[in-house]
Design brief:
Blueprint (H helix, E strand, L loop, with lengths): L6 E10 L7 E6 L23 E3 L1 H9 L9 E5 L7 H13 L4 E5 L6 H5 L6 E5 L5 H8 L4 H13 L2 E8 L7 H11 L5 E8 L5 H7 L13 H10 L4
Parallel strand pairs: 2-4, 4-5, 5-6, 6-7, 7-8
Antiparallel strand pairs: 1-2, 1-3
Helix pairs in contact: 1-2
Length: about 240
């Protein structure tokens, strides 16, 4: 008998408010090819790690349906980790959500780019695209990848007319540079699909996870971005 399609899921959040519009059911998928220096979910990195949930798309939808009245003006979000490491599962789950009239959002860094991952877009209403840095060398320093696939994905989203929210983490001494932020905004201006830019301040709330996993924290000693700095950035770069 053929093994059913299942997704390896790190955790579930039934009332998410920061991963897309409205109140959302958020699924954190296990596995990520990147190693962002500021990642606050290092426990989602290993694709082969034991997980709390291993569900079929239908089982996950059944779980979502328990909260359908609460997320009626929101929807579901797949995040991680990197959900596009499990594209078959994501595509089928989003297909079922569309059948059920549930808004779908994909939170991705766009690092996994191939025919299968692009097929997930067939049933995706919104993409939360995390652009680490425009410059390949800086991007490698931030996450271990040159970031070109994220920009390829943005081009594909523009071609398809799928709404995009850009996410960009502002880190002191790394990406907190007005020249870099100007360049990013200038790059994004021609894209009609970009509906919003979320400027995210670097924080240290996930540091304890590194200790629990026996890992050295890559940005040891770097302070959180001050609230007044992220406020100034958001005021300087209103979008659209």
């Amino acid at each position: 008998m053929e093994k059913p399609l299942t997704g390896k899921i790190h955790s579930l959040e039934s009332f998410g408010t920061v991963d897309g519009p409205g109140i959302r059911f958020v699924t954190f998928m296990q596995g990520c090819p990147l190693r962002c220096r500021y990642c606050h979910n290092p426990d989602t990195w290993r694709a082969d790690a034991p997980v709390k949930y291993e569900l079929t798309p239908r089982q996950l939808l059944d779980e979502v349906s328990r909260y359908k009245s609460f997320i009626a003006k929101g929807g579901v979000t797949l995040t991680g980790g990197e959900p596009l490491m499990q594209p078959d599962f994501c595509r089928e789950f989003f297909r079922l959500c569309r059948e059920a009239g549930i808004h779908t959002a994909l939170d991705t860094a766009g690092s996994v780019y191939n025919e299968k991952t692009l097929s997930v877009l067939d049933f995706t209403d919104l993409v939360l695209l995390d652009i680490k840095a425009l410059q390949p060398e800086l991007c490698r320093a931030v996450c271990g990848s040159d970031g070109r696939n994220a920009l390829r994905l943005l081009d594909e989203l523009e071609r398809r007319g799928i709404d995009v929210w850009i996410r960009h983490v502002v880190v002191p001494g790394l990406t907190d540079d007005d020249r870099l932020l100007d360049e990013l905004v200038g790059y994004l201006k021609p894209y009609r699909c970009v509906r919003k830019i979320e400027w995210l301040p670097y924080h240290t709330m996930g540091v304890f996870k590194y200790k629990d996993l026996g890992l050295a924290y890559p940005l040891e000693g770097v302070p959180p971005l001050p609230a007044e700095r992220i406020k100034a950035i958001r005021e300087r770069y209103p979008w659209p």
